Amino acid sequence: MTAAGPPLGDKLNDRLGDRLRRWRRTRATELVQQEAAGARVDVRVVTDSTAYLPESFVERHGIEVIPLHVVVGGQELVEGRDISAAEVAAALREYTIVTTSRPSPAMFAEVYARLVDEGATHIVSVHLSSQMSGTYEAAALAATEASVPVEVIDSETIGMAMGFSVVAGAEVAAAGGELDAVTEAIHARLRPSGVLFYVDTLEHLRRGGRIGAASALLGSALAIKPILAVRSGRIMPVEKVRTSSRAVARIEAMVLEYVTKGGVNVDLAVHHLDAAARAEQIAAHLEGRLPGSPEVLVVELGAVVGAHVGPGTVAIAISPRPGEPLPASAASPRP
User: Fold this and answer.
1) Single pTM value for the model
2) What sign does the dihedral 114-115-121-124 (CA atoms) show?
3) Most C-beta atoms within 10 A of its C-beta, which of 97, 136, 294, 301?
């Protein structure tokens, strides 16, 4: 007689066990692939050099920065690569003609194409106020030819008031956020942001045609230290004082009032052109008055903005963090 084989029930159990093991292996592979895909940044964030983002921020968040150009004595130079802020300040003091120019649409198109090659499925491009530069327009032209959707945002501001919003968008993108989530994070930071600053003279702004309504102050430009603000994309006059020390004190007071009334945490940056000591003092003072706020960055203005505001300029960029209440200990600034 032939020996009887395993019972039918055992055969079925073996087959089911094999199938289950194969399914588990396949499913494990799928989960690994999904996890890897989820870690990939599909939305890439682009800005321009007038955000003046510290290099560590750019590298950490994978932000693409497109440089503007500055023309000194007829020679066109790339901001951040060919010329420093100190060199621009020196040229302005020597009354050398200094002008600026936007990046070309072709430059934007090249960057967008490279990001697509790197795997981007969407791009968000955030740039300085369109009322101050044609950079936004150049980006928008390039976006129409891109092979993926490109959302171009007019920040209506400049410096780290724009830079902090770019970082917020890049953080959402890195976490796997989709296009709408990234753009909303950027707009949420841009809406309440602002820049307050003073210049030693309005002459540089006048030459560049950047002062708008502030021209009313020109008659006494040599006798005053004007306090200006970037509002709705334009440089507007706020107040005028007689000395630089009073201007600094007034700007600090305005920032403190804004932060405490807003009731939310903020990111702050002190910009300057050839006025590092004064900028460091302002940052330390603000940190001491608002212990609930994060570290106040000190970031020198680059050649492009420096060419328009001139040496000695100090600015404070304010970027509130919606949804992050100011700690109770910081509700009232210390004297």
Assistant:
1) 0.81
2) negative
3) 301
